[in-house]
Every structure is written in structure tokens, then in C-alpha cells.
Amino acid sequence: MGLTNYRYGDESDWYGLFADALHRAAIESAAFGERVEELQERWREQAGNSRRGSAAAKLIDALPTHPVVNLRTAVEITGASEPAVLRAFERLERAGVLRQTSAGRRNRAFECVGLFALMDDFERRLGPAHRAPAATSAFRAAASPEPPGQPRQIGSATILSRSTRFDLEESSRRRSRSLERSAARSG
């Protein structure tokens, strides 16, 4: 089937396989677009249906193409002032639309809640069933908002939020750099 038959002059199997894959990709892509629009509508509701043209509304509109944003990017996207964008970040974070992914108050980055789970699901739907990992309860749980920094218990496993994992990794990196500097000064 497929390429083997194609090599021996029977192209119909290959064309059929290719056409089926294109058809499936088109259907799944349209469904993915609808799910992203539904997610954006949920974000709007969670944020209290922000005023049209506000920094928060413009951010929600742009999140599917900019799923991780920082202050500079958000100012460019929205055309709003830094204070307006900072207020939008606070509002959207409180509403569970954004989740801070960086440690500290300076140079903060935020990711939109739920979009990466949709992309993972899209990838699972489109990939070959024997290669794609099955969706787990941890995967399904990742699609729902979680309080920043709060671990989630699923069965016997403790699932940390992305921001908590990032904070722990960043803390570990800082500790390693500090030890390296101390060792360099002593040696």
C-alpha cells in the first residue's frame, strides 16, 4: 500500500491515502478554529466582557496568535499604554485567562489558559492513532484553569502548574549559578 504500490506503478492507493489525509486535516482544522473561537468567547466571559477596544479585549483577540506575551509584545499588539496593559494583565490573570509563566514582578511573561491544551488535542486528533499518546486525565485537567502555584492531585501523581514548574526550574538555575560563582571565586 502507499509508496510500495506507487513504486510499482499503482498510484491510486497513494492518491487515495493523500486525499484522505488532506480531507481529514481540513475537517480537523476547521473544528480546531471553532474550538479556538469558543475558547476566546469563554475568555471574554471570564474577563467580564471587557469594553470593546480596551487593552484586555485586544489581548483576548490576539492570544491565539500570541499565546505567550510580555509587556513589550502586549503594548505592540494592543497599541495601548504600558499602564493600560499592566491593568489588562492583572484583570485577565484574576479572571483565569492568563497565567504568569515567569518568576517575579519584572520582565513577566504570561500564557493564555487552555490554548496549548487545544493544540495538544488537535495534534492527537490529526496524528496516527498508533503514534499519538492517549489523552490522560492530566491532559484533560491541564485544559482547565488552575490557581497559580497550586499543585493538583490526580490519582497518586502531583501535577504542578506550568508557572510552578517554571518557578522551581528558575530557582534551581539561580542556585546553580550562585554555586558556580562561589566556586569560581574560591578557586
What's the short version?
With 187 residues, the protein is mostly helical. It is 60% helix and 9% strand.
Description:
The chain is mainly alpha-helical and 187 residues long. The chain is 60% helix and 9% strand. It has 8 helices and 5 strands, in the order αααβααββααββα. It has helices spanning 3-7, 12-46, 55-62, 71-78, 82-94, 115-126, 137-142, 162-186, and strands at 68-70, 98-100, 109-112, 152-154, 157-159. The strands form 2 sheets. Strands 1-3-2 form a 3-stranded antiparallel beta sheet. A two-stranded antiparallel ribbon has the order 4-5.
Task: Describe the secondary-structure layout.
Elements: H1 3-7, H2 12-46, H3 55-62, E1 68-70, H4 71-78, H5 82-94, E2 98-100, E3 109-112, H6 115-126, H7 137-142, E4 152-154, E5 157-159, H8 162-186
Antiparallel strand pairs: 1-3, 2-3, 4-5
Helix pairs in contact: 2-6
List keywords for this structure.
187 residues; mainly alpha; Arc Repressor Mutant, subunit A; three-stranded antiparallel sheet; two-stranded antiparallel sheet; 60% helix
CATH architecture: Orthogonal Bundle
Output mean pLDDT: 76
Hey, roughly how much beta strand do the residues contain?
Answer: 5-15%
In CATH, what is the class? Answer: Mainly Alpha
Major sheet details: 3 strands, antiparallel
Q: What's the SSE pattern?
A: HHHEHHEEHHEEH
Amount of helix: 55-70%
Total helices: the number is 8
What is the strand arrangement across the widest sheet? 1-3-2
How many distinct folded domains? 1
* Radius of gyration computed on alpha carbons: 22 Å
* N→C terminal distance: 65 Å
Annotation, overall tally of beta strands: 5
Structural class: mainly alpha
Q: Per the principal axes of the C-alpha atoms, what is the gross shape?
A: flat
Unreliable stretches covering 5 or more consecutive residues: 136-166
CATH topology: Arc Repressor Mutant, subunit A
